[in-house]
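Render this sequence as a predicted structure.
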Amino acid sequence: MWSQLTTWLQSLQSDWLMMNGWEALAVLLAMAYLILAMRQSIWCWPAALASTAIYTLLFWKVSLLMESVLNVYYMAMAVYGFWLWKNGGEGGQGQQLVSWSVKRHLGIIAVTGMVSVLVGYLMANYTHASMAYLDAATTCFAVMTTVLVAKKVVENWLYWVVIDLVSIYLYLSKGMILTSGLFVLYVGLAMSGYWLWRKQLALDSEPQMVGA
């Protein structure tokens, strides 16, 4: 009995150390993505691709099913975002910063909120997912917000502030300490990202002086 218990504890310790090693790498890559995105560097997308590939496996292991599915989506969006930032916009010169109206954002929030409730209900009743409604809400809003990032909508950062705050609670409840710490930083960086993009949009909107 004691031998079996010792073996189980050793296996648990090994899995924990392995997971935290991968989690640490995913955290570093995610931080690189966010900092590069704040600077509007196209290289944020390769960092996102690598980070989300790792998180896809980590979230599946702790039964956060929608978070795992979300990261598969992130991988696809990393490819799309890279292409859009390089080839999108007018004349294929790369996507430019834009700001959307409050009315448009309210419509987006309403639709995404309804989808979140529906997905949460399905998860709660037909899967083994834990914290189904919170998991569904963070997933659905993150799916929507990632599109805003790819399109360089300035207000995407405000959505991330709320998503990150909810995610902190979600990950702490699963013992993912490093990831929770990452999301604490995300809140501050998202606020900084909004300020930087807003400032750059104002500069881009200023009339250019043309020499005589």
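Summary. The radius of gyration is 20 Å. Residues 8-13, 208-212 have pLDDT under 50 and may be disordered.
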